[in-house]
Design brief:
Rossmann fold, 630 residues, five-stranded parallel beta sheet, alpha/beta, 24 helices
Length: 630
């Protein structure tokens, strides 16, 4: 949007004040201002006063009544006609004729015919204030006859050419009305900004009330776009302070308040989230900001707290995400001692992310509405990114188990427990050197999950790898995929070193003794990896499940263990008040950042006040020493 310069407003107010002070001669009834249109006399200030004392007095009374009867001036027709009859040659006769046209416009119906004849006659005369005001009246007639677009086109060139407060109000209101009728909402916002920026101080309250009423007629979607434009403009010039920015800030807050009202009244969690995403920090800290955050967190239902509850988002988009999610829930149940054992307990709720548009964000919202203090989510880049967006604006503590692309940690409510992006590939790559083939993971040479046998042959091109003497194959896919590749590699007598990433690492235990392996380990995971994870760390799990935990079981267990440590001392409290829910989420966030527990996937005991779980990856080669990669 084009900002309105404050200079014309200052000149207009100064000219208005000087003319009012000159009212000793009663000439204050009419002020000219510097015009901005073309023509030889367009820039020459001109004040036309009534010629005789009687005419001066009569016109002063007309102007005073004109200001009083702003909402409906149709009753002024007799007085205006009497003035024109008595003073047809007076210097203000043209302005009086325009005022008469306006009174006929307010009358409507047949009055529009006479009004149109008057404004066309005045509009054909010399340039100046009267002609500009006549064109405003002509636009008003066009709008009332259904030509809203034509009215807008008549009014736009007049921006900045009317400075008398009453005439400015007429122009701004007509432009806003016409733009609204024409569905040109950006132009309507522009007109409202003009009116606010140029309004005299003593009329500002009335102008704000009028502009607020007109802004309330902008459809919600258009109001949201207008607010986004104003917010973006405010971020570009945060230190600027003048009449134009004051008008922008007032209109910006008026639009925001309307949208907040709509979100709260309609329980629109998506609108609440979008508003919070752009809202200033001061608004987020307010009572209404807290209510909006609770609504955003609940995705249409009010976020609440139901004692000590951890939420887990279960992704069900495909077989891989379902398998990972099932493993995470198993690990979380193990960490929380569920079904419940003795002592203070922490409960678990699960919500589904089916993988459709917006499902990931709605799942985090659903967990918050089910009372979760901390949410665990993210089995891949997509599910983590969606969950992170919701948590960031809703103020719900979130532990991601897969790191998304981008800066998810920009929000203090988002924590990452998985391996840092690309770290597995870098660690194995450093150990195994160049010429390696990557199976699974971002940018892989072979898509581990989608590879299928071709012509009854092998699922993976192990024969081609053997012929090409590929020195190493990095397995960064699932454990199931790694087991299948390991079986085919042994059958083909592939001589390459097989490097196992964290998810694939548990499959290394099934490798033939003669296989050359490089297994990525972290903390006490995997139990089956060589190089030093104490078996006792997983004894209870193995006793119950019959096999060592996989990567996602171990991650789910660690995330839930830290969540439990963070909230186990919280009161068994039910809270629905937005401010109380927000306060409990903030308390849970701080507690999670400093929580400690024995962990399986890292040597660290917690986030240590940061937002990413520290982790040292080790590559253990059969017959070799561990190689460290920080």
């Amino acid at each position: 949007m084009t900002p309105v310069s404050p200079a014309p407003a200052r000149r207009a107010r100064a000219a208005w004040a000087r003319a009012r002070a000159a009212a000793l001669s009663l000439a204050a009834v009419a002020l000219g201002g510097p015009a901005c249109g073309p023509g030889p006399d367009a820039h020459a200030p001109r004040v036309e006063v009534a010629g005789t004392r009687e005419a001066q007095r009569a016109f002063r009374e007309l102007r005073a009544r004109w200001a009083r009867e702003r909402d409906d001036r149709s009753g002024m027709q007799p007085a205006l006609r009497a003035f024109l009859s008595a003073h047809p040659e007076d210097g203000r006769a043209r302005l009086a004729r325009v005022m008469l046209a306006w009174s006929l416009v307010d009358q409507g119906g047949s009055g529009l015919v006479e009004a149109r004849a008057i404004v066309r006659e005045v509009g054909a005369g010399r340039p100046g204030r009267e002609r500009d005001l006549a064109r405003v009246a002509e636009a008003a007639i066009a709008r009332r006859r259904g030509d809203a677009d034509g009215a807008v086109e008549l009014l736009l060139p007049l921006r900045g050419r009317l400075f008398d407060p009453d005439e400015l109000a007429l122009h701004a209101e007509e432009l806003a009305e016409a733009a609204l009728a024409a569905r040109r909402y950006q132009t309507a916002v522009l007109a409202l900004r003009d009116w606010l920026a140029l309004a005299p101080l003593e009329e500002r309250a009335a102008v704000r009330a009028a502009t607020g009423a007109l802004a309330g007629r902008i459809p919600l979607a258009a109001a949201e776009r207008a607010l986004a434009d104003l917010d973006a403009e405010a971020r570009q010039d945060p230190g600027r302070r003048d009449a134009a920015t004051t008008a922008r800030e007032w209109l910006r807050e008026a639009l925001r308040e309307r949208l907040v009202d709509a979100a709260l009244a309609g329980s629109d969690g998506e609108l609440a989230r979008r508003l919070l995403d752009q809202a200033p920090a001061a608004f987020r800290r307010s009572e209404r900001g807290a209510r909006l955050a609770a609504l955003a967190a609940g995705g249409g239902r009010q976020a609440r707290v139901e004692g000590r509850v951890v939420g887990v988002v279960v992704a069900t988009r495909d077989a891989l995400t379902r398998a990972r999610s099932s493993a995470i829930v198993s690990g979380a149940l193990h960490a929380l001692g569920l079904p419940r054992g003795a002592g203070r307990g922490v409960d678990l709720v699960t919500v589904e992310d089916a993988g459709g548009p917006g499902d990931g964000e709605r799942a985090v919202a659903a967990a918050a509405s089910e009372g979760a203090l901390i949410v665990i989510a993210g089995v891949d880049d997509a599910t983590s990114a969606a969950a992170g967006r919701r948590a960031a604006v809703a103020g719900v503590p979130l532990v991601l188990l897969a790191s998304p692309a981008g800066d998810a940690l920009a929000s203090p409510f988002v924590f990452e427990a998985g391996a840092a992006p690309g770290e597995e590939r870098r660690a194995l790559g450093a150990a195994l050197g160049e010429g390696r083939t990557v199976v699974g993971g971002p940018g892989a040479d072979v898509d581990c999950e989608r590879a299928r046998p071709v012509g009854g042959g092998t699922r993976f091109p192990v024969g081609a790898w053997r012929a090409a003497r590929v020195p190493a194959v990095l397995l960064l896919g699932s454990a199931g995929c790694a087991r299948e590749l390991l079986r085919e590699a042994e059958q083909a007598r592939l001589q390459a070193t097989l490097g196992f990433g964290l998810e694939a690492a548990v499959a290394a235990a099934g490798a033939a003794p003669a296989s050359r392996l490089a297994v990525l380990t972290s903390g006490s995971y995997p139990e089956g990896g060589e190089g030093g994870a104490p078996p006792a760390a997983h004894a209870a799990w193995v006793a119950r499940a019959g096999s060592p935990p996989g990567w996602w079981e171990a991650l789910g267990r660690d995330a839930a263990a830290l969540a439990r440590a963070a909230i186990v001392s919280f009161p068994e409290e039910r809270a629905e008040d937005a401010l109380r829910v927000s306060a409990l989420h903030e308390r849970a966030r701080r507690a999670l950042a400093s929580a400690e527990a024995p962990l399986w996937t890292t040597d660290a005991r917690g986030f240590g006040g940061a937002q990413r779980l520290p982790r040292v990856l080790r590559v253990v080669e059969r017959g070799g020493e561990p190689r460290r990669r920080r």
